[in-house]
Amino acid sequence: MRADGAIPVWPEAISAHADSVDALAIGFFALIWTLALPIGFAIVWFGWRYRRLNEDVDRKQRHHGLTWLELSWMIVPFLLALVFFTWSALLFRDLHRPPADAREVYAIGLQWMWKFEHPGGQREINTLHVPAGEPVRVIMNSQDVIHSLYLPELRIKQDVVPGRTTSLWFRADDPGSYSLRCAEYCGVSHSRMVGELVVMAPAAFEAWLAGTEAGLPLARAGEALFRELGCSGCHGANAAVRAPGLADLYRRPVPLASGETVIADERYLTDSILMPESQVVAGYEPVMPSFQDVVTESELVALVAYIKSLSGREGERE
Ligand code: CUA
């Protein structure tokens, strides 16, 4: 139910992408009915017209192929599929390409709650505060099973997968309080994995951020952890083991021993910490142990934030 008491048939649209997503959904809806209605009518009509008891039809009449008709029902749906593929792909690409100045927030899904961490060290549970009118990039990890972060008013939904980092970005335009939920069945309390998205005017958001009790900024917490876990023993300046350098690594291309080249984004950094053997860097020995059972998801987020900070791209807004 909405605040005005109306039962929502269609959630409010408050994001930069919402109208495009709605247009695509309506487009698909129109396409489906454009195809389904004539076929449905044809089935009923043929069933009626050629029923056994109808003696008015000439049953000896035969057609042997109508080339233009045969071609048209291959070509028209093919073209329509191409149009819808291109339309969806462009929107998908846009949703996965955040503007460079997007504010970042980390989300961790677990049975059964959402944890959010802001780069400044502010943490929230089941509530996410964001500024209105600014691009926000959500970087997601799961602590246990597959969840899905769903923000209906923003038309955003993304699976949150254990051992894999996913991300999306959005820009919420209207301040207010909106729903936030898990859209992937994840166990007995899945239905209670709900929260709130609070969109605030930018000044109010800054005030909220400043007034919220913050732990260490993520990058600083990550730096401490980096030393504690002994990462600096190999990835440091005077390390005994020759390990790939981390300075200025974030968003750079990395050549792998497999011959592939990957971009060092959050997913790459997470994978390198959890499954280093899966992407050995070209020219290095596969000696790094997995930290899968060593670090928690929150610690992982901090380590990734620290490595990003070495490229001067994290915490620019603090
Ligand atoms: Cu988490 Cu459903």
TrEMBL record:
Residue stretches making up the Cytochrome oxidase subunit II copper A binding domain: 100-211
Residues annotated as domain Cytochrome c: 217-311
Pfam family, any one: COX2
Places the protein is found: Membrane
Recorded superkingdom: Bacteria
Keyword field: Copper, Electron transport, Heme, Iron, Membrane, Metal-binding, Oxidoreductase, Respiratory chain, Translocase, Transmembrane, Transmembrane helix, Transport
Family per record: Belongs to the cytochrome c oxidase subunit 2 family.
The protein's name in its UniProt record: cytochrome-c oxidase
Biological source species: Marinicauda algicola
Gene: coxB
